[in-house]
Amino acid sequence: ELLQQTDRLIATVPEVASVFGKAGRADTATDPAPPEMFETAIQFKPRDQWRPGMTPEKLVEELDRIVQVPGLSNIWVPPIRNRIDMLATGIKSPIGVKIASARLADIDRVAQQVERIAGTVPGVSSALAERLTGGRYVDIDIDRAAAARYGLNVADVQSVVASLIGGDNIGETVEGLARYPINVRYPREWRDTPEKLAALPILTPAGSQITVGMVAAVRLSEGPPMLKSENARLSGWVYVDVRGRDLASTVADLQQAVAAGVQLEPGMSIAYSGQFEFMQRANARLKAVVPATLAIIFVLLYLTFRRFDEALLIMATLPFALTGGVWFLYAMGYNLSIATGVGFIALAGVAAEFGVIMLLYLKNAWTAQQAAGQAGEAGLQDAIREGAVQRVRPKAMTVAVIVAGLLPIMVGSGTGSEVMSRIAAPMIGGMVSAPLLSLFVVPAAYWLMRRRAAREAAGHAE
């Protein structure tokens, strides 16, 4: 009923073409979903049929506002990303909190505390803890002595329970190209209560007919709807969805809030899993790769210019060249991610190229001025003016080509556009700051570096 209700609510959105929901888990090891978890696949209409001004972000906000069912928490995840996350981390949501202990009651208590605390963390749109209590089970406790009096052993009674109550395939029928199993079990109206189960008939080896209640005790008991284990320990999961904030800072605040508000019993542990694990691995790798790369670039610059100060000048300009990309990310509302990091790495390469070419033009112009006998400050200024002006047109052409090539990525909306737009954004923003830096700051810095030498050269010439 709840699944049908949520399907009807989702179908009221005009952009939705079809809705198909599934309750519980599929018959596969890659879908460890509890019975209370609904998976609803939503297919949207083509983008040209959406309402004016509607975007995927606004669509998710509208769905989240419409689908409000007591006891259910919404997590809106694209299906392919959902499956990749499940196979990689086992968590359906961007962040997952795993509580491990030897007692289910402790896991359930701590999981509900984490769910309540996670809802107060900024950026968390929903938090759902798996319930490890509330499952109903039918226990059939076989009385060995009573079964032996009728010539039955435990295996005989279990076979009857498994086949006639649970159902057993005894063969199959072939209908053309289709094959259908033949399943034997008692009718539903014979087995829908514990009393009726106890009254089910059993045939003994002697040919007499007895009931299940004569050789076993039938009763209902409570237990967990589903059991999970990791590292040979029972575990419970809390699914946390994030919207409007980056994962790294959200996880940091969540860990701090949980550490302050949750008291763990001896033998319990809390672990965090989900998409942010990939960012943590990438950050750990980048902490070693980026310094090594910068060191290699500095060595190559030194080998090119044969001067320590000129190589240091190019390296010092890189942070200022990246400011345009940072401001553009802020204007677009993008969070820092691996994709934006790739864009900044590409921008740093282009900015270093701008600085190197500008410095080479300035050095060549200064060398020409010295060869012409103009080694003073006036000659240095003329050389800087001439070298910088020669780079205006090539730099404008480079910037125009890069921006023209990346703008279609920013305005595109197809598959993969979210990742590609975040790679392109730093480059587009940096095409404002990097050229201005190389056109104005690098010549000015070169003037400050060579002014004393030019003054001394002019003094010696006199």
Explain what the structure shows.
Helix 12 runs parallel beside helix 15. Strand 6 and strand 7 (178-184) form a beta hairpin. This protein has helices spanning 2-11, 56-66, 79-89, 104-118, 144-149, 154-165, 194-198, 247-261, 276-305, 308-321, 323-332, 338-371, 377-390, 392-411, 417-461, and strands spanning 16-23, 38-44, 95-101, 124-129, 135-142, 168-175, 178-184, 201-203, 209-211, 216-223, 228-230, 233-242, 269-274. The N and C termini lie far apart (98 Å). The strands form five sheets. Strands 3, 4, 11, 12 and 13 form a five-stranded antiparallel beta sheet that branches. Strands 1-2 form a two-stranded antiparallel sheet. With 462 residues, it is α+β, with helices and mostly antiparallel strands. The longest helix is centred in the C-terminal third of the chain and has 45 residues, at 417-461.
**Tally of DSSP β-strands:** 13
| Number of contiguous helices | 15
Order of helices and strands: HEEHHEHEEHHEEHEEEEEHEHHHHHHH
**SS class:** alpha+beta
- Terminal residue distance: 98 Å
- On the 0 to 100 scale, the average pLDDT is 84
Query: Spans of 5+ residues with little confidence (pLDDT < 50)?
Result: none
Radius of gyration: 35 Å
Helix content: 40-55%
Main beta sheet strand tally, sense and closure: 5 strands, antiparallel
Could you say which overall geometry the principal axes of the C-alpha atoms support?
elongated
Please report which band the strand proportion falls in: under 5%, 5-15%, 15-25%, 25-35%, 35-45% or over 45%.
15-25%
